[in-house]
Amino acid sequence: MQQYIKLATFNLANNKQDVTIKVVNSQEATNPYPQIEGDKISFEYTLDKISLESINALCSKIAADVKAHNSGFNLEIDSSLNAELIIESLLLALSDINIFKSSYTEPQTYDVYMSEQLAASYPSAYSRATAYNLTRTLNHLPHSLCNSQTLSESIVELLDDPRFKITINRLSQCQELEMHGVLALSQGSRYEPAVIRVEYSQGSGKRVGLVGKGVMFDSGGYNIKSGDITSMKTDMAGCGAVIGTLKAISSLDLEVNVVAYLMTTDNLINEQAYIPGDIITYSNGVTVEVGNTDAEGRLILADGLLLMEQENCDVVIDIATLTGNSAVALGKSYSPIFSTNDEVTSIFTSLNETSTDKVWPLPIASEYVEFIKGNISDIRNTSSTKNGGSIIAAVFLHHFAPNTNWVHIDMGAMSRKEEFGAPVNGFGVRLLTNFIETYCTKS
Ligand code: BES
Ligand code: ZN
Ligand code: ZN
After folding, report:
1. 128 catalytic, yes or no?
2. Residue 145 clears pLDDT 80, i.e. is over it
3. Would the CB of 289 count as within 6 Å of ligand 1?
């Protein structure tokens, strides 16, 4: 992949700079106005609760002030705040995401003077920013540059670490592995599907499985979407989040065991495309009638979850832009999380306090199984009721992970939130990285 958002960097300076950037919590706030003393100028910013919006607003302001002064700076962050997250976000804010504008400017290296303690958090903040930046880049690229073909050609280079064992399954391997959901979707595309398996085995702890929805463009298929569908190039954001997470765990050198499946294909239309009424028979024997070709994500995740049955994971997590209904259920600040294990759920929700990627549990409601019962098949990919769309999708997926510690994250609502001047972000990278760190190394 040629076009790539370049990331700003810090050069850790030994000498004090003329500009001082001070981030404090609201109790410590003293003066919102810049303090000027001769050549020196000092800015104070406050941060209260951590959210994607508050961190982004803070870092956008800092980036604007730093750029306006076109100089290095002293960075001070109150010890009560998550310095690593602030530095990560600042690196992202100082980088121009708009690579397709002729006004695009390459980011700079800034001389930054920090305390020893703060400087110690820079390398991991930079690693995390690199991972996040990779994900938002993939989400930002149009389908012509980021599709199952280009991704499978560049995944080794993107992950860039020999500790990853990477297997790329194209059409014939998908046939051998009986991935009938992926095969059904890929019929409509000129690109072969790519189901990419990535393994990172370090240390002897728990093993986490990740499955990412990689619908590289979701037109809706023959149940074609109406209105503006340009944003549906980001229907691979679950896959993007998994790639960024893999990047993060390797850059941070985490001693963890992770196996991932990137489920990439398209939901497009041609003469061969799958159509409503088709029946898909999965490798576990479950038959699914296609009630709606736009409920395609669950059809390919089903294959991914079935592949995970062979992987002996302690927990399997899928992440997907699965339903628009996720925004109806929880709004745009929390992603629904569905889990068969309460302990795992509580690890996820406990991470909410210190992260931008917030989740909240919804039930895998057995009462709703009847709504997806098929007339001529076992189940359907659509519901007989219009309510509870996110839960219905989870209930569908549960048929393909019946005996696993399983988590499903529906990031539909979060995927298109604007960040730093473009309608994409890297939701999921922080969430999954923090989870893996906590689950594998601390419990
Ligand atoms: N990719 C969409 C969900 C989506 C919509 C994500 C908007 C982000 C923003 C998914 O494939 C889809 O179309 N879901 C349908 C399901 C319905 C047909 C049962 C939906 O949510 O409307
Ligand atoms: Zn769809
Ligand atoms: Zn979709």
Report:
1. no
2. yes
3. no
Structure tokens at 285: 């024997």
Q: Which pLDDT does position 16 carry in this prediction?
A: 96
* Bridge-based pairing state of the strands 40-47 and 35-37: antiparallel
One-letter-per-residue 3-state SS of 183-195: HHHHCCCCCCCEE
Q: Indicate which residue of 67, 170, 225, 417 is catalytic.
A: 225
Structure tokens given for 381: 């990919």
Concerning whether 225 is annotated as a catalytic residue, the answer is yes
Helices 237-251 and 122-140 pack at an angle, to 10 degrees, of 160
For residue 101, pLDDT over 90 is answered with yes
Tokens representing residue 306 in the block: 């079935």
Interacting residues of 354 by C-beta distance below 8 A, sequence separation 6+: 50, 82, 85, 434
Q: Tell me, in angstroms, the distance from the centre of ligand 3 to residue 374's CA.
A: 21
Residue pair 94/108 in contact (Cβ under 8 Å)? The answer is: yes
- Condensed to tens digits (0 to 9), the pLDDT of residues 341-399 reads 999 999 999 999 999 999 999 999 999 999 999 999 999 999 999 999 999 999 999 99
Helix (H) / strand (E) containing 113: strand 109-114
CA angle 224, 225, 231 (to 5 degrees): 130
Q: How far apart are CA 418 and CA 431, in angstroms?
A: 18
pTM of the entire predicted model: 0.98
Q: In what order do the strands lie in the sheet with 406-410?
A: 164-169, 194-201, 257-267, 207-218, 315-320, 406-410, 335-339, 359-361
The pLDDT of residue 1 is 58
What's the pLDDT tens digit per position in 329-338?
999 999 999 9
325 lines ligand 1 (CB under 6 A): yes
- pLDDT for 291 beyond 90: yes
Tens-digit pLDDT profile for residues 15-31: 999 999 999 998 887 87
Q: Which residues of 350-362 are buried (b: 16+ CB within 10 A; e: fewer)?
A: ebbeebbbbbbbb
Neighbours of ion ligand 2 (CB under 5 A): 218, 294, 296
On the CB side of 98, CA atoms within 13 Å amount to 9
